[in-house]
Amino acid sequence: MAASLCRSPNPTFTPSITRSSLPTAPRFLKFPNVSPSPAHPIKLRPLTAQSSRSTESFATPRATATPSSSSPSPTAATSFHGLCYVVGDNIDTDQIIPAEYLTLVPSKPAEYEKLGSYALVGLPSSYTTRFVEPNETKTKYSIVIGGYNFGCGSSREHAPVALGAAGVAAVVAESYARIFFRNSVATGEVYPLESEGRICEECKTGDTVTIELAESLLINHTTGKEYKLKPIGDAGPVIEAGGIFAYARATGMIPSN
Fold first, then answer.
1. Which pTM does this prediction carry?
2. pLDDT band (50, 70, 90) for residue 256
3. What is the C-alpha radius of gyration for the chain, rounded to an integer number of angstroms?
4. What pLDDT score was predicted for residue 15?
5. 85 FRET partner, CA 20 to 30 A, in 48, 107, 141, 198?
């Protein structure tokens, strides 16, 4: 840009091009109308269940429960009953399923079952009670109770899958690592339920408990105490359907195969 300076005690900058001489830009861009015609039809690709991030499908829907009502609802009236296995805070994905077992492919039924046999095998030696007994693929503990930040660590989907394969229906924790919660919902393996207090300090491994999803309640029949849980919300129907893809097919979001 050309400019001139005047030599004076207080020099000023005087541009040779004024603001009014600049071309004005349009306030908006106008695009031509495009409408389909027989000569130039618009083709849309149907949404499918395949994704570039994950194409893995698992053997069977996992988070099985006993429905107390046959009609579907936003919060499925579902209950779980069984023995609980209690862990502490910061249970990470390496403790849930160590990296050495990630070569197992959950979409293969035999390997899916084997994956369950290694669930929580990475817990430290202070946990004297085995979650899954040696030479077994299923656990007798259908509910896991934990502290805060359950499922921290890596983003491996194998963590909730291993728990589901072992026979776990629900995990109740004070809080979750976001990726574990999301993977639990997406795979439909387990219900990740949040407690309103530190239930892990009041329940013991081997206690008989019942979870009532509709009432957001955990009942410890061994101690006679009841604990309020946070509602599972919109994630409930997705898990009940068997995962995000199964839910999308059931609701017509994507075509059924």
1. 0.72
2. confident
3. 28
4. 46
5. 107
